[in-house]
Amino acid sequence: MQPTATHLDLLTPTPGDEFSAVMGHAGLVASEFSYKKDAEIYGEEEPAEYVYQVVRGAVRTYKLLSDGRRQIGTFHLPGDVFGLEAGPVHRLTAEAIIDTSVRLVKRRSLEHAALGDVQIMRDLLRMTAGSLKHAEDHMLLLGRKTAMERVAAFLLEMDRRLAVAGMMALPMCRRDIGDYLGLTLETVSRALSQLHEQDVLGFSGARQIVLRNRQRLRSMDA
To answer: What contacts 64, CB < 8 A, 6 or more positions away?
Structure first.
């Protein structure tokens, strides 16, 4: 782990932030670390000693396949919790997509708090179940959808998670999107161009997208 800066805070609950609420209830202290673009937060097979939450920026988790390709498992955005593992090591590598700040707490401290508080245990199980659901949805997306359907599903996911005033400012590049969807960079670019030509979406800068026809995207994702 190579953070550029750190400081310590007692996490206090903020509206809608389940992880901060759990930490505040448990009285745990979290460290905040800042990472530059593309910096590794933790590596595959490294000890899973901490649980993380994105404060600012974005994080990708991925696995390098035997043929050298990269499969991105999840994009973690502000408020998202990651690094919750069933075993003692991380199954994937985590990197900052852009300049990013994360909070982290020791996994052992969190587990100890959960042993003494049923509510904390339930909250952690709920967060873990949410991660499992995303993994299942992602597996189905990769297994049965066409390239255009995958891109449509991705845009709808980011619309739910990122859109502000009707516009998405994507932190990830098209190569990242391709590695998340199991598509080539060229296929992703071609699909976005087709959707633009069909007036389903509009561009405002390289990574800023406005969805003009969500119903059309939902029909592709059905």
So the answer is: 44, 70, 93
Q: Give the residue carrying structure tokens 């000693």.
A: 49
pLDDT in tens, 62-102: 999 988 899 999 999 998 999 988 889 999 999 999 999 99
pLDDT digits (tens, 9 = 90+) for 18-61: 777 777 777 787 889 999 999 999 999 999 999 999 999 999 99
Between CA 146 and CA 152 the distance in angstroms is 10
Residue 71 DSSP label: E
Which phi and psi angles does 32 have, rounded to 5°?
A: -110, 125
And the tokens for 61? 């988790």
Q: In the structure encoding, which two tokens stand for residue 86, read together? A: 């069933």
Q: In the chain, at which residue ranges do the beta strands (DSSP E only) sit?
A: 5-10, 29-35, 40-42, 50-56, 59-64, 70-76, 81-82, 93-96, 100-106, 167-169, 201-203, 208-211
> Cβ distance 155 to 211 under 8 Å?
yes
